[in-house]
Amino acid sequence: MTSAVSFINVSRHYGEIRAVDGLDLEIREGEFFALLGPSGSGKTTSLRLIAGFERPTTGHIEIFGERAEGIPPYRRNVNTVFQDYALFPHLSVIDNVAYGLKMKGVSKNERRATAEEMLELVKLPGYGDRSPAKLSGGQRQRVALARALVNKPKVLLLDEPLGALDLKLREQMQEELKDLQKRLGITFVFVTHDQGEALSMADRIAVFDSGRIRQVGTPEDIYRKPRSRFVADFVGSSNVLPPEFTERVAGERCWSSLRPEAVRLVKSGGHEATLVSSSYLGSQYRCVFDVGGREINALIPAGAKLPAEGDEVRISWNKSDLHLMEDEA
Amino acid sequence: MSTANAAILPPRSGPSGAASDAFWRHPTLLLFLLLTPPLLWLGIVYLGSLLALLAQSFFSIDHFTGRIDYSFTLDTYRELFTTPANIDIIVRTVLMAASVTIASAIIAFPIAYYAARYARGKWKALFYLGVMLPLWSSYLVKIYAWKLILAQEGILNWIFHKLHLYWLMDAYLSLPVIGGHSLSISYTGTFLVFVYIWLPYMILPLQASLERVPDNLLEASSDLGAKPSETFWNVIFPLALPGAIAGSIFTFSLTLGDYIVPGVIGSSRYFIGQVVYAQQGTAGNIPLAAAFTIVPMVIMGFYLWMAKRMGAFDAL
């Protein structure tokens, strides 16, 4: 499979600060790829390197096999949906969407027609003559998307595009983006700090930390088999267990992770525990157990009767659910 | 019961306490009190004198006695617009104001752009100092300093002589209209000094408007395939236009009304401001002076109306 974007030992330093440090990454053609990490981890800088807004201090970036060095953004067939949309305030919605076509020298009638099609694609037909200032956040998001797609880019870059939307709208847009990506078959590279968003939308995820990639893999890989403590901590609310504890419960001395939903209450066997606290989440209880001085978070399906706080109970999990991690960090 | 744990505290003592409560209950009262004096000033003193001026322009002067005839007539305006010399003065002043405005905008833009997008910290402070510093010194001193620079025996000619480039200056001075015996007595001289003294009024609003253009709009433009020149004309220019218009209102109207610069530096041909000065002073023809003053006001009104129609204020 062709790679849409390749980072070959790419670094971007600002003086002492290493925003991106020795990055190697292949993004495949047609995939929905998420760059996930906390703020300041280098994910946005990586996206800007693909767009051409930043230039690597060292290393190379290839877009569909072509070296991108010294190529300005306006010569890259890559378009960006900006975090705060960056719609042109002095242009109407249709002129915003048609901007890319205007730069290509497409005739006025043709670009109006194409832009109108794009607005239909993002479910905003007939909004062309409005001013971006008169739109809601969700609508601006869609205009930004239409504007970035109008030039039929080889790669679409999305910089935390859903960050400013409220929860319900965000979930709806997640579905729509996924659906759009499938229909258009364009490679999407998506920056987010929201692990839920990355897990639910992406085909593959790269987890960033301090300018480096900690792990690349499918959402299942990343979630079930985090390679390091950082990934386990950041992705999901897994219990990250130190080597002494792992040795006690599994016989091997290394860091391990245990997902809260893998923990269950048992009558016999398993491990002795004390229920420290519990809270009701509707379909589940979120419980904290104390196992020999170590706190374990668990999600227990609602329905069964929950012991009282402070009760002595026994908890257990499948051996395969305790994931042993290779890396220390 | 001690006041420390009462739910409602007793009223503050004294008139200021009572006033505070009253203002809190009637917020418009405070606004009214604060705005009345300046509104009176604007309404009566400023607008009143403008109306008085307008009224004066509809009176006429008796050329034999020099007395003002206080009856409504359009004679003064007829005199203004039928005397070819007066038309020349208006055209000359408007052309000068327009060239000064365009030149100021062209010179101010890179400076404002640098200050808005690149200057940070002490460089920004230095920019403000550099732009404002000339405004702190006397207007007359600056004009006479320019006379010394531009005069026949001035610094500029001395430099041209030393560089053996005086033939260039000579060639320029021999051009019709804009040339003259020396720069200090040519339209070019007047133009240079006008541009110099009004430039800060163009730089500051331009810089303010450029500062409000977010960086990511320029990135978005570039991302969508616009070359830097296309980004300039499609994004930066339209968004900076309100600032340029605001600046041009200053440079244009200040040039239209100025009567000192062309008197000190320039060919001795009259500009509107000088005629107003001469007519109301030595000639004692207040009606004609008033009619001449109305001209730049009408021109400015028309200019603002055009600017609004062109959408210069839409992005405000």
Describe the structure.
The complex is a heterodimer of chains A (329) and B (316). Chain A has two domains: 3-233, 3-Layer(aba) Sandwich (Rossmann fold); 237-324, Beta Barrel (OB fold (Dihydrolipoamide Acetyltransferase, E2P)), CATH 2.40.50. Chain A contains nine helices and 18 strands. Chain A has helices at residues 43-51, 93-104, 108-121, 137-149, 167-184, 195-201, 219-224, 229-234, 243-250; strands at 3-14, 17-28, 32-36, 58-63, 66-67, 78-81, 155-159, 187-192, 204-209, 212-217, 239-241, 256-258, 264-266, 271-280, 284-291, 294-301, 312-316, 322-324. Chain A starts with a strand and ends in a 5-residue tail after the last strand. Chain B has 316 residues and is an all-alpha fold. Chain B has helices at residues 14-25, 27-57, 75-82, 84-117, 122-136, 139-150, 155-162, 166-173, 187-211, 215-223, 228-257, 261-264, 272-280, 286-309, and strands at residues 60-61, 68-69. Chain B has a two-stranded antiparallel ribbon with strand order 1-2. In chain B, strand 1 (60-61) and strand 2 form a beta hairpin. Chain B is globular, with a radius of gyration of 27 Å. The mean pLDDT of chain B is 88. The interface between A and B is medium-sized, with 25 and 19 residues. Chain B: Belongs to the binding-protein-dependent transport system permease family. CysTW subfamily.
Query: How would a textbook summarize the main sheet of chain B?
Result: 2 strands, antiparallel
Biggest contact: A-B, 25 and 19 residues
Class based on secondary structure composition and strand pairing of chain A: alpha+beta
Which shape of chain A, going by the Cα principal axes? globular
Family (chain A): Belongs to the ABC transporter superfamily.
EC number (chain A): 3.6.3.31
Keywords (chain A): ATP-binding, Cell membrane, Hydrolase, Membrane, Nucleotide-binding, Translocase, Transport
Pfam families (chain A): ABC_tran (PF00005), TOBE_2 (PF08402)
